[in-house]
Design brief:
The chain is α/β, with parallel strands linked by helices and 244 residues long. Strand 6 and strand 7 form a beta hairpin. The protein is globular. The protein contains six helices and twelve strands. The longest helix has 27 residues. The protein has one domain. It comes from Pseudomonas capeferrum. This is YkgJ family cysteine cluster protein. InterPro entries: Puta_zinc/iron-chelating_dom. Pfam families: CxxCxxCC.
């Protein structure tokens, strides 16, 4: 992160347009109950194997869950996100948030990064230049200057860890059991929201479903199958593969 950085929101609404906002399990329930669409993003890796970024080992392991895949075990990370391909459904005509007091945790944290291994870079954000030239200190000495904001970041990371088993169980109950390999892409699902809301209301037991990795590269496929993983390269019907 930049050693010293200021920030003050200008209210431009750009961060609320064209971004899928990660949700905690409880926030996903609220989003579904209010009529919103959730997109499910999934990536997988093998502990000490394919898809495991060694420098991120602790962070990645803590927000993932083991699943059966081929002859071995993969670990999957699941993100439930508010589906916002355009303007957020909660923005009014003046670009003001109509659920501001109950907005998702990630919205409260923006523009700070949740992943501790992703540096905060103003040029990677949608905020106008003047947002970074005013307001209180955001970063000071490579640390978050606001203790309250730091607590929100940690709360978000902890929710990822606490919610992952339930998210995987929901995915398995709804047949969303094809993942991409971490670092190679995501699989993205748009579940039917009635069924999704029902699964969220009473999280099902882990049904032991077997998972498959969507991979298009032949060499990578051979490598994954070599360690016992199940793969597919068939054109997806019920999900999208978003490759890097």
């Amino acid at each position: 992160m930049t050693d010293n950085l200021r920030f003050a929101c200008t209210g431009c609404g750009k961060c609320c347009t064209g971004h899928h906002v990660p949700l905690t399990l409880d926030e996903a329930r609220q989003w579904a109950a209010s009529g919103g669409q959730v997109v499910v993003l999934i990536e997988a890796f093998v502990a000490d194997g394919p898809g495991m970024p060694e420098e991120q080992r602790e962070h990645v392991l803590r927000r993932s869950h083991p699943v059966a895949c081929g002859d071995t075990v993969a670990r999957v990370s699941v993100t439930f996100a508010a589906f916002n391909p355009g303007r957020c459904r909660n923005l009014d005509d003046n670009d003001l948030c109509t659920i501001y007091d109950a907005r998702p945790l990630v919205c409260r944290i923006y523009p700070v990064e949740i992943n501790p291994h992703i540096p905060l870079r103003p040029e990677n954000k949608d905020c106008p230049t003047e947002a970074w030239q005013q307001g209180p200190a955001l970063i000071h000495g490579s640390q978050l200057a606001d203790a309250g904001l730091a607590a929100l970041v940690e709360a978000s990371r902890q929710a990822d860890r606490d919610d992952i088993a339930a998210k995987v169980a929901v995915c398995q109950a709804l047949g969303m059991t094809t993942s991409a390999l971490k670092g190679n892409g995501f699989t993205a699902y748009l579940p039917e929201m009635g069924a999704f809301a029902t699964a969220l209301a009473q999280v099902p037991e882990d049904n032991g479903a077997r998972w498959t990795l969507h991979v298009q590269d032949e060499a990578l496929t051979a490598s994954l199958r070599g360690v016992g993983l199940s793969t597919t390269s068939e054109t997806p019907v019920y999900y999208a593969f978003i490759g890097f």
